[in-house]
Amino acid sequence: MEPGFAASEIDTSKPHPARMYDAYLGGKDNYAADREAVRQVLRAFPEVRAMARANRAFMQRAVRFLAGEAGVRQFIDIGTGIPSAGNVHEVAGQVAPGARVVYVDNDRCKLGCAHAWSAGTDARTLSACMR
Ligand SMILES: C[S@@+](CC[C@H](N)C(=O)[O-])C[C@H]1O[C@@H](n2cnc3c(N)ncnc32)[C@H](O)[C@@H]1O
């Protein structure tokens, strides 16, 4: 379990799919190369932004249902990614304060982001491949 990563592991000169996903969602964890790639993708496939938002909204609806109606209090988010708003611990915590969340990703850079945005919460991060 090692959430830290070296800044040298991040190449901001090339677009990265996770940072592009963040850009589709209107997040702030992306760079000029990511935003330019997003512009090019959206020129060819304008529906991609709506698809990313629908995917994210589904995750949030599912967590809200599980924490609310189903009474789930422990969550494992496998493939956390880097989006910085509306994450599982935030959505679950709104419905069920005290719900516990573990974020798992096999990309240490993304897990580093999760570690940063979940700092000061009960959420934990775990670097692992789920295959
Ligand atoms: C598109 S992001 C998902 C973001 C977020 N969960 C959401 O739904 O908005 C997919 C993530 O899955 C991670 N991932 C892919 N294969 C994995 C594996 N075998 N084990 C753990 N994480 C994996 C990637 O590193 C990436 O961060």
What does this protein look like?
With about 130 residues, the chain is of the alpha/beta class. The chain has one domain: Vaccinia Virus protein VP39 (Rossmann fold, 3-Layer(aba) Sandwich). It has helices at about 15-25, 30-45, 50-65, 90-95, 110-115, and strands at about 75-80, 100-105, 125. The protein has a 3-stranded parallel sheet with strand order 1-2-3. Strand 1 (about 75-80), helix 4 (about 90-95) and strand 2 (about 100-105) form a beta-alpha-beta unit. The longest helix is centred in the middle third of the chain and has 20 residues, at about 50-65.
Summarize the structure.
The protein has helices at residues 17-24, 32-44, 48-67, 88-95, 108-117; strands spanning 74-78, 100-105, 124-127.
